[in-house]
Amino acid sequence: MEKLLKELQHADLQRQTRRHFLQSAGFGLGALGLGSLLGSCSSSSAESVGASDAANARIPQFLPKAKRVIYIHMAGAPSQLELFDYKPELLKYHGQDCPAEFLEGKKFAFIQGVPKMLGPQSKFAQYGQSGAWMSDYVPYLQTVADEITFLKAMHTDQFNHAPAQLLMHTGSARLGRPSLGAWSVYGLGSENQNLPGFIVLASGGQQPDAGKSVYGSGFLPSVYQGVQCRTGGDPVLYVSDPNGMNRDMRKQTIDAINEINRQTYEEVQDPEILTRISQYEMAFRMQMSVPEVMDVSKEPQFILDMYGVKPGEGTFAMNCLLARKLVENDVRFVQLFDWGWDGHGTSKDHNVEGGLRKKCRESDQPVAALIKDLKMRGLLEETLIIWGAEFGRTPMQENRNGLVMPFMGRDHHLDAFTMWMAGGGVKQGYSHGETDELGYYGVKNRVHVHDLQATILHLMGFNHEKFTYPFQGRNFRLTDTEGKVVKEIVA
Amino acid sequence: MFYTLLQASSWTIFIGRFHPALVHFPIGFLLLAALLEIGRRTGKVPVQESTIRFILFVSAVGATIACICGYLLSLGGGYDIELLDNHMWQGIGVAVFAWIAWLIKSERLGAKIPFSSVIYLPAFLLATVLTLTAGHDGGSLTHGQGYLTQYTPEPFRGLAGMPPIQEKADEIKPIANVQQALVYDDIVQPILQARCAQCHNANKQKGDLRVDQLALLLKGGEGGPALLPGKGSESDLIKRCLLDESDDDHMPPKGKPQLTPDQITLLSWWIDQGAPADKKVSELKTNEAVTPALASLSKGAAPGKPVKQESAIANVKVEPASEQAIASLRKAGLIVNTLSQDQNLIEVSAVNAPNFDDKQMELLKPVSTQIAWLKLGDTKITDAALEQIAKFPNLNKLHLEHTGISDKGVHALKGVKLLEYLNVVDTKVGDEGLRGIAGIKGLRSVYVWQSAVTDSAVSQVSRQNPGLSVVNGFTEAAVAAFLKAGDTTAIKPETKKL
User: Fold this and answer.
1) Inter-chain contact B473–A61, Cβ cutoff 8 Å?
2) Considering A462, B73, B88, B167, which has the largest number of Cβ atoms within 10 A of its Cβ?
3) Do B109 and B196 have their domain in common?
């Protein structure tokens, strides 16, 4: 503690030296000249952004239907052919060579030569009033079939995990763009002043392949980036006070640091300093609010049972329960990542039979519980739930290196996969799009990743073509130059 | 003959496009010369003849250059021939008469021209009048006919005998008896008029195409015929509509209202049937695809336009809330966000103000017409606050969960006509309160979990109000049932032999 205070004193003194005076005087004059120059060029540029305050909202183009988002990303990509896209024809072709027309001019991540077709490994039936097709891998989701809109003919441009995840979350397969969550908070603002507007929870033992960029702020001020919370133990590391430090002293320290930062900002005008100031203040408030909101011990037992969680666990189920609590506290965007869905057939855990069944057993019940829980609290119709992955899986069995895999597995597939949405302004009990008889291509109502993003922004009230941020001389948008709102799924 | 003197090239077009800029010089100069001439003759303006002579010379030179540029511009094509012809001869007239007027005024040549004093004034007058008419026709060529007076306001509009301003005929009227409707006149033309004619009409022909007559559709434009009778899917008209919207060849261009899938089906079907001009629907063969599209023509909506359940406040517009009122709300810790552009409706949330109470309701009074979404969950408000809230005319969503409100307060909400969402989770509201608010016509969802509302009241109210969804929550028993429904541990994962 003493060290900290000393450092503070030192920093303060440093500011007052003659050299600093001269430096800032020189800087000041130069900046003055530059400022007037730049000012004359940029007088017509778009809005200036108050980076310090994430609570500032921009006005949506139309009435929002979804106020909050829970985005559930199954990193690695579960097989749509075992879960939602029922292809009885594929079973007939099981074990036969893949037709040449499926392979011509195509590239796969691992498939080589002529692979064999792989029939569905699960049992399908129709559920709900809407008659949604689902498999026995997801018995709990069957009970909420009539809340869901399926997108059965999704397609993407990327067949490797990291670029495909980037495309899905930031609209570009390359680094540097803001994520969907960052855009959402930039657009609608952050509501609960004690919690970040964009919170990330990960499970499954690993982070998504694309790393933190899938919830980054790209060229938006970094105040909009996702804040990852740990599920087990301290939700945010080092957020609690160390021994010997009380909350008052912590407050004084942060106030002093912020004062110095504010002076620096006045000197150099870097908006990132404002971000830093607001993050210090946020962190101080989070000391109180985060442990409270992340504590599930006060939840009634039957709610814990419904999700299938025990306090203290860091599982996907726990993250679903936390997502509900965060949304209940008006957090704008909650992003869940669950790793381990990459069913190539290479091992006991990574295949489309037992491995996928195991992942489903861990995630099916909490996801269904989340939908039910949000609904009874009156939150589902204002909260958009999105479930999906970065791509789908092939109707062919993977034959990595020309070998037969030890387990039934499928390779990455970009031409057809299934995603679903519920709540926040989408139709209840609806299925959009169809794939061909073998589930290889979308043949009706295909939806590209950019179309999905345009639709999500639309549900939040934004016209994706007008919702832009000026960067490096042009106005950028989440969907870049693509994207068409899928009006058919909007309730 | 005259039009083919030169071939259009990038040079001719480059020079030609200066025409609209250059024409303003002779117009200005000639009018100035005319004014000075009047001033000189009436003796009001002391001006030398040489000044007027000089201005006339500049006008004549300018008019000549403008004529040359105009001719080069016309080589690019795309203009109404008759109007263009008029404009050209008027323009040439301006130049010729300006030169004549100058010649007469000139010191050296003026004396040699017979009857010069008689000719001067008519020539000058003609040049001036032609400037005005040529200028008007030129404007019509550039902006379209009727551009100048399109927005003439009343009462001048009525005095001039002009029809009232027409809203664009973009929406298609329902057809009473589809079977007896003429396919081309009653179905095809209205679609083309609504979606294509804006750029392909008698006055403006992008890509040389006009869609207002069948013969002209068959003739087509730059890319050949717009339709091939009998071959719908091979016709340019259909192919362009089906192209991806981002494709440069897609029609209508990106950003303009697009044809619905049903409209494309109808056009394609009509072409498949040979694009007849005078057949009725009943005289042509229908197929599976076109039947629903035809059926949709009789419903009020445009073909294929889905009937959406719009929010009750979707079309509400109010005055913007005063900045001062919003500032005082924010000062009290409330979040105030504008819901959407143009409407000025606002959302107010007390998520950061857990101590908000009945007394602070006064703060909301100045914005009572603007509040559409109000979130007062987890605050200290009581029934007294609801009496105030009931006076918010545009209230659409109301969160009251985890507060001390009861039936008495909820009864006051009966008069809130636009209310669609009400959350009374974890309150003292009971059956009586639920029955009361169920009478609000547009109410869509009420959430009553952990309130005093009983299951029997929920099912009774739901039965009596089919449009209203009353959502009660889970009890331990319901959770047990849910867990059982999804429990597959008893079923062994099957290993399929394939």
Assistant:
1) no
2) A462
3) no
> What's the pLDDT at A236?
75
Do B154 and B187 lie in one domain? The reply is no
- Cα(B379)–Cα(B359) distance, integer angstroms: 12
Residue B295 is given by DSSP the state H
Return the higher-pLDDT residue of A320 and A298. A320
Q: Could you tell me which residues come within 8 angstroms of residue B199 by beta carbon, excluding any fewer than 6 positions away?
A: B206
pLDDT tens digits for B28-60? Answer: 999 999 999 999 888 888 888 889 899 999 999
Instruction: State the average pLDDT over residues A181-210.
Output: 91
Partner-chain contact B447 A377, CB within 8 Å: yes
**B285 plus B338 within the same structural domain:** no
Looking at beta carbons, which residues of chain A come within 8 Å of B475? 302
pLDDT at B171 over 70: no
By three-state DSSP, how is residue A155 classified? strand
Taking contacts as CB-CB distances below 8 angstroms, the residues of chain B near A369 are 482
Distance CA A19, CA B308 (A): 68
pLDDT digits (tens, 9 = 90+) for A227-286: 888 876 677 777 677 788 888 888 898 899 999 999 999 988 888 888 888 888 888 888
Q: B45 to chain A, minimum CA–CA distance in Å?
A: 45
Separation of alpha carbons A156 and A170, rounded Å? 13
| Structural domain containing residue B367 | 323-497
What is the ipTM for the molecules in this complex?
A: 0.84
Residue B302 belongs to some domain of the structure: no
Contact A63 B313 (CB under 8 A): yes
Please name the residues between 423 and 462 in chain A that touch chain B, using a CB distance below 8 Å: 461
First-to-final CA distance of chain A: 56
pLDDT digits (tens, 9 = 90+) for B259-312: 888 888 899 999 998 998 888 888 888 887 788 788 777 754 443 334 456 788
CB A140 within 8 A of CB A189: no
Same-domain pairing of B210 and B339: no
Domain boundary among B127, B159, B191: B159
Q: Is the pLDDT reported for residue A40 higher than 50?
A: no
Q: Which of A357, A376, A490 sits opposite B473 (nearest CB)?
A: A376
Judged against a pLDDT cut of 60, whether residue B395 lies above it is answered with yes
Confidence of residue A222 (pLDDT cuts 50, 70, 90): confident
How close, in Å, is residue B78 to chain A by CA atoms? 31
On the question of pLDDT at B204 being above 90, the answer is no
Q: Is the peptide bond before B252 cis (omega within 30 degrees of 0)?
A: yes
What span, in angstroms and rounded, lies between the C-alpha atoms of B297 and B267? 13
Please report which confidence band the pLDDT of residue A28 belongs to, taking 50, 70 and 90 as the band edges: very low
Residue B284 sits in the same domain as residue B419 = no
Helices H, strands E: what count in chain B? 18, 7
Q: What six digits make up the tokens of B61?
A: 């030179």
Q: Are residues B389 and B466 in the same domain?
A: yes
Q: Tell me the shortest Cα–Cα distance from A345 to chain B, in angstroms.
A: 15
Judge: B474–A376 Cβ closer than 8 Å, yes or no. yes
Least confident of B107-116, B188-197, B388-397: B107-116
B486 and A368 in contact by Cβ < 8 A? Answer: yes
Q: Does residue B458 belong to any structural domain of this protein?
A: yes
Q: In terms of Cα–Cα distance, which of B366, B330, B367 is closest to B350?
A: B330
Which residue's structure tokens are 């491995």?
A355
Within-domain flag for B140: yes
pLDDT at A47 over 70: no
| Residues of B whose CB is below 8 A from A91 | 498
Tell if the CB–CB gap between B486 and A365 is shorter than 8 Å: yes
Distance from the A35 Cα atom to the nearest Cα atom in chain B, whole angstroms? 31
Q: Which residues of B fall within a CB distance of 8 Å from A303?
A: 474, 479
Residue B304, domain member (yes or no): no
Distance from C-alpha of A357 to C-alpha of A363, rounded to nearest angstrom = 10
Total number of domains in chain B: 3
Indicate if B269 and B351 belong to the same structural domain: no
